[in-house]
Q: What sequence folds into this?
DNA sequence: CAGGGGCCTAAGCGCTTGCTCACTCTCCGT
DNA sequence: ACGGAGAGTGAGCAAGCGCTTAGGCCCCTG
């Protein structure tokens, strides 16, 4: 029933299931390099040396540098989508489900901020067909969040005049965590997730302090 | 008292006062290229050809490609800072000033989304000292927003348990507009600004519907 | 009208890039 | 013992990069 790694919210590296070992090291090296300098400023030599191998070894496991980005982007987007889908399909009131979606989505972006930064901000470097594929996943994510908000509006527990615009705002808030979050910073992923869940409930007019 | 172009919220190109004409065309070309493909994926030949000149002409007006980015980033950040400072120092209740700050800040990011995208997302490509300079301006912007929120908390009209975290969230919301806003899309800069101002008032517990 | 500065170009230099090639080493089934 | 597949390397190619150089045109000033 759960074909994913053990734990969606925990601290597992998202690339633990890639084989062989060298391929996994390459993906991990690419994630860190892309997150630090951006895709175009990262060289294949940089990725290979971070993975502890020669420049040529990269091409044994991946056809191009772009394929590495595609792998990262695709897996990351699917993980992000599954997080909000799980919240959408879960039990509870719309407010509880929206809070759960935001909390786990934000926690993922904070916990895996290196991966998330690549996933959210480097997709413009993908080849056309890969880009389109990833955009489709993003639209599904957007739709999942919107459907939770619509549920709340239909149930009369949310006060949201502009559902589409508010959905974009909620996702903005969550995604941007990947840009500024710093593991050495003041707050933990859990704290940010809780804070943001509360802020989003207020945004939809279902703030905890007002019923 | 106002050494800036005529209009901070209007539709003026932010580079209208650069001379000579060729330098202005180069900056404008660089902004568009950087926004579309990113700094590192943009070539000096691309910038020059967009500006209607030969590759070498770029170096008559700017020492390096990075200096072009610095010019864009510095001017853009200063403009953004002046927008929130104006709101902070303006008249009205904390709620009114916060709403004004968000409205004009968001409107600027939507209106000038091409410039804003470069300003907000390409600063990592700056040289170390230029980067530090720009970071200082960003901190000032953060501080200006935070001081408005603190005013509201002190006055007892905002309900914000975590001022620092909420400030980050508010800025996230505004900045991310530059990433997704599309001039051909559904909503105008004014509409987004109004929507976001309302959402932020709710985030700080000063929603219009509850006094 | 001489001449110098501002603005621009064609050509190209030195270097780095993504990627390939010929080859080696290690492991494993027969 | 050995051949073939998988995984890796050192060297290097073609293309593209940021940037420079040498020189030409135009206009302003004396």
A:
């Amino acid at each position: 029933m759960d074909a994913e790694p053990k734990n969606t919210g925990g601290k597992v590296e998202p690339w633990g299931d890639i084989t062989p070992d060298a391929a996994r090291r390459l993906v991990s090296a690419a994630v860190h390099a892309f997150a630090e300098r951006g895709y175009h400023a990262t060289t294949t030599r940089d990725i290979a040396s971070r993975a502890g191998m020669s420049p040529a070894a990269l091409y044994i496991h991946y056809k191009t540098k772009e394929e590495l980005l595609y792998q990262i982007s695709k897996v990351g987007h699917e993980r992000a989508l599954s997080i909000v889908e799980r919240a959408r399909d879960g039990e509870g009131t719309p407010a509880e489900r929206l809070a759960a979606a935001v909390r786990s989505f934000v926690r993922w972006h904070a916990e895996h901020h290196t991966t998330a930064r690549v996933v959210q901000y480097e997709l413009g470097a993908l080849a056309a067909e890969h880009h389109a594929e990833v955009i489709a996943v993003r639209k599904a994510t957007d739709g999942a969040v919107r459907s939770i908000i619509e549920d709340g509006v239909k149930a009369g527990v949310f006060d949201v005049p502009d559902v589409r615009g508010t959905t974009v705002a909620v996702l903005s808030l969550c995604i941007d965590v990947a840009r500024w979050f710093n593991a050495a910073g003041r707050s933990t992923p859990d704290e940010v997730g809780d804070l943001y869940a509360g802020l989003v409930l207020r945004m939809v007019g279902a703030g905890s302090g007002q019923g």
Observations:
- Chain B touches chain A through 34 residues (CB under 8 Å).
- The longest helix of chain B spans residues 128-154.
- Chain B has ten helices and no strands.
